[in-house]
Structure formats: C-alpha cells, structure tokens
Write a structure and sequence with these properties.
The protein is of the alpha/beta class. It is built from seven helices and 13 strands. Strand 7, helix 5 and strand 8 form a beta-alpha-beta unit.
Length: 244
C-alpha cells in the first residue's frame, strides 16, 4: 500500500517507525492532538488527485484515524467509495476511493504475548478522557466488570493522566476477586517490550504508559506458568484429561 502512494501523513512517532519504507515520498507529520489537521492535509492531497496514505499504529479502525477520516468526509460532503467499487472521474466529481487497510491492534499483539486471555467475550475500554468524559468511562468500566467480561484497557497512563488506572482498578475490584490474573504488556512487538502477569490487587504498582495494554481476566481466567488464558467452556462439555 505505501508503495502506491505519493504522500504519507501521520503522527511523528509513527512516521519515524516506518522511515525506511517511505524514503523519497512527500511526508507530513504532526505531533499528538493534531489529528484533525493531519486528516485535513491528507484529504487536500487526495482531492488534488494524488494518492495519499494516513498511517496509524495497530489497526487504523481501532482507536485510530479511520473513524476521523470518515467523520470529516461526512462533515464536508466529500463523496467516497470503498476499493471494491469503481470510481469514475474522481478528480472532476471529487469522489475518492477510500481503503482502510487492516493491521494488528495492540489487543491482539498483547494477547499473543500473554497466551490466550481473549478466548472468550471481552470488552475494550480506553482510559483516556481527552475526548470521552471520565464519568462515561467509569460507567463503562462498571458495566463491563459487572458483566464479567475480560477487560482490555487502552491508554492507561500518560504524563498528564496518572490516576485513571488506579481508579479503574478500584471500580473493577468491586466486582472481581483481588487475585484475578491481570496481564500488562508494554510496547508489544517493539523495542523495550515488557510482559507482566500480576494479580488485580497489584495492578496499581506496575509500570504503565501510553504504549501499555492491560488485560484484566474474567472470573474464569487463569494463570498457568507464564501464560494467561480465559477458557471458552470446553471443560464443561468435554473431558480434557488424557485418556489412558
């Protein structure tokens, strides 16, 4: 995909990560919180008739830029079509071909490093209250904990947000045993990767940042050696013991 575009737009950190792949291309990078400006720049390029890519970490449709692109296209009346539909006279009628290329989200990368914590139903919640009021996040945490979902937490801490993870821990502990296995994955599949499994009661003691994904087990989740898993229910229907 990157080979087929003239311009690449993205958050500065992500642009740096793919530097070797985009040499010679027109690069537009912006810092954190400049997402709207980033998308506008990409749309301007695309509407001029030149192919352009917006890069995100993980999957572009999970806490990333694909949603904002669609929002801004709708807000500005920009006609778009998916890649499996033909586009005629795209420059003249301002109809763009928009393709969302799937990636590996942090929840999948982190889960693979822990073992199989997401084998059964789970909920994913971001602790960032930059765009979502904390009161709503609290309600979602409480509801997910009551429903006994495995809970995946994105954006647990940042330089400015230090207490949200501990607050989330306290909410979940109202409905879950303190010994619940909890996986913490920092920088999954990147340099400085760390993988930890602790009890829920000790979650507030572990290191965490914006590159951290937290996996809080359900009442059925278990730790086996250095792995974490959530049964899907096979043991309730079949014998898992070796037959002799």
């Amino acid at each position: 995909m990157l080979k087929s575009v003239d311009s690449v737009v993205g958050y500065t950190t992500y642009i740096d990560l793919i530097g070797p792949l985009i040499g010679g291309k027109n690069i537009i990078s912006t810092p954190m919180t400049k997402e709207v400006e980033r998308v506008q720049a990409a749309l301007d390029i695309a509407l001029s008739g030149k192919p352009c890519a917006i890069v995100s970490s993980g999957d572009p449709g999970i806490y990333a830029m694909a949603g904002l692109v669609l929002e801004m296209c709708q807000a500005n009346g920009i006609s778009i079509k998916p890649p499996f539909q033909s586009v005629e006279n795209k420059v003249q009628d301002h109809t763009l071909r928009l393709e969302v290329v799937p990636g590996i989200p942090a929840l999948c990368a982190g889960a693979s490093l822990l073992g199989a914590p997401l084998t059964h139903d789970f909920a994913v919640i971001s602790l960032s209250d930059l765009l979502t009021p904390w009161e709503i996040i609290e309600k979602r945490l409480d509801a997910a904990a009551r429903a006994d979902f495995v809970i995946v937490l994105y954006n647990p801490k940042s330089k400015r947000r230090r207490r949200q993870l501990e607050k989330a821990q306290k909410i979940i502990l109202k409905h879950r045993d303190k010994h619940t296995p909890t996986g913490v994955v920092i920088s999954a599949m990147r340099k400085n990767q760390e993988v930890l499994i602790v009890s829920l009661e000790k979650l507030h003691q572990v290191p965490a940042n914006m590159q951290t994904t937290v996996f809080i087990g359900s009442s059925k989740s278990f730790r086996y050696l250095d792995f974490m898993s959530t049964p899907r229910g096979y043991a309730d229907k079949y014998s898992l013991y070796e037959k002799k």
